[in-house]
Amino acid sequence: MALPDRRGHFGPFGGRFVPETLMPALLELEEAYRHLSRDSAFRQELATLLKEYVGRPTPLYEASRLAQALGGHLKVFLKREDLTHTGAHKINNTLGQVLLAKKMGKKRIIAETGAGQHGVATATAAALLGLECQVYMGAKDTVRQAMNVFRMELLGAKVVPVHSGSQTLKDAINEAIRDWVTNVETTYYVIGSVVGPHPYPTMVRDFQAVIGRETRKQITSLVGRPPDLLIACVGGGSNAMGLFYPFLKDSVRMIGVEAAGHGLDSGHHSATLCAGSPGVLHGAMSYLLQDEDGQVLEAHSIAPGLDYPGVGPEHSYLKESGRITYTAVDDQEALKAFKLLSEKEGIIPALESAHAVAQLVKMAPELPQGTVVVVNLSGRGDKDVAAVAEYLGRGSS
């Protein structure tokens, strides 16, 4: 059976756990998406924007020097989502959703953002399609990602710092939901990952699946067959789901990499699937970080885009079904991978993507000769350079 089911469930996960006032909006969205996703004119308009505005297809680049540094026995390919317009995979989803919002007659767009990539991508799509845009961002993240705040403002968006709670992505989502409840008649909420109430996890997955479809075509052209292994980082999980989804029916090994932060035993991490438990967060049943009383715990990662205590419900289903393996690497491992890829390939990855590279580094000695690996490079690291310099003791005083 294709998942989700009609009520938006992936096995026991997913669904809609929202205030009654949001149900009409979600039903309206579900119906509009069901209709437009099958509409050839909508699909063609989005495909044209992805090609001519975003720059798709993105390259599948063979990282020979990285492979050599890992022992020379692997064929390593990087799916270069960092080369999209705005520098991350987020634009695939935001263009799809903002175009959908415009077709639905909505005049105002709201969004939340952690690392700033989703906020920039939403502000970009709203500017392109002529819609008002407001982005909620944890106050702590506005400091860590000050340049992305400025980029969003240049694009015409209003950025609202959120000072409640941990002042990170979780709190920004809470504030965006409050806004949506208040202004649901005129406002469209662009969720940035495969999280939230149905139909968002399905819709975001579908918009991001262009990553996996392109990868399948490109790797088959380059090596004559599907890859042996796919690796992607997982925060909410949109870039991973986009890469994995078109390969789910194949015998391709897949690994999702969460952020172990200071270590899984430290209590300071974002490894929801590796160290969390099922519960309800932001409108869906999924794995999350919570205490014995069900209170949501604060997440931590050096990568702001992974700093989220929940994960998409389809990832939870795929974990429990055993189809995908989920693991975690810590901040120091991600930093080493960040430096390694920069030095060996001249590519500075986003800290989020560096977690996926770090997992490859850990696994490489055990992989057989000739293994074909694709790592999803979900975003570029310009946004992280100042933060990394500070971590490495090279920041300005």
From TrEMBL:
Top-level lineage group: Bacteria
A GO MF label: tryptophan synthase activity
Keyword Acyltransferase: no
EC nos: 4.2.1.20
Signal peptide: none
Cofactor(s), names only, from the UniProt record: pyridoxal 5'-phosphate
Metabolic or biological pathway: Amino-acid biosynthesis; L-tryptophan biosynthesis; L-tryptophan from chorismate: step 5/5
Catalytic activity: (1S,2R)-1-C-(indol-3-yl)glycerol 3-phosphate + L-serine = D-glyceraldehyde 3-phosphate + L-tryptophan + H2O
Pfam families the record matches: PALP
Modification sites for N6-(pyridoxal phosphate)lysine: 90
Record Gene3D superfamilies: 3.40.50.1100
Keywords annotated in UniProt: Amino-acid biosynthesis, Aromatic amino acid biosynthesis, Lyase, Pyridoxal phosphate, Tryptophan biosynthesis
Recorded GO CC terms: cytoplasm
Family note: Belongs to the TrpB family.
Quaternary structure and interacting proteins, as annotated: Tetramer of two alpha and two beta chains.
PANTHER family: TRYPTOPHAN SYNTHASE (PTHR48077:SF3), TRYPTOPHAN SYNTHASE-RELATED (PTHR48077)
NCBIfam families associated with the record: trpB
Described purpose of this protein according to its UniProt entry: The beta subunit is responsible for the synthesis of L-tryptophan from indole and L-serine.
Protein name: Tryptophan synthase beta chain
